[in-house]
Design goal:
With about 110 residues, the protein is an all-alpha fold. The protein has five helices and no strands. α1 crosses α5.
């Protein structure tokens, strides 16, 4: 990813998600779990966070498609989850997902 695009994704993540989530390896949970390494991780599986039953039992693995659906409308995608997030802007969702794919994987 080009540096300008990476910076945009990071800025959007901080603005939209950063209050509740971190992507740093050694950060613990905030209001939500750490998203370090979230792409490829089973939903509701980070050891240091207490998830809703809906997320623990969802049986999904976070990838581009599941993150897209989740960020579009988390409550519609997975009723019973605690997180309430709805992003109607396709570009914002894509940039956040792209940031998670690159920055949360190290």
């Amino acid at each position: 990813m080009a540096p300008a695009a990476a910076a945009e994704g990071e800025a959007l993540f901080r603005q939209q998600c950063g209050t509740c989530h971190s992507v740093k390896r050694d950060d613990g949970p905030r209001a939500g779990p750490s998203l370090h390494g979230v792409v490829g991780r089973k939903a509701g599986s980070a050891a240091d966070y207490e998830y809703s039953d809906a997320l623990r039992k969802a049986g999904i693995t976070w990838d581009t498609a599941t993150l897209e659906r989740w960020l579009t409308n988390s409550n519609e995608f997975l009723p019973g989850s605690v997180m309430n997030y709805r992003q109607t802007n396709d570009t914002v969702r894509r940039e956040i997902i792209r940031f998670l794919q690159t920055s949360a994987a190290d």
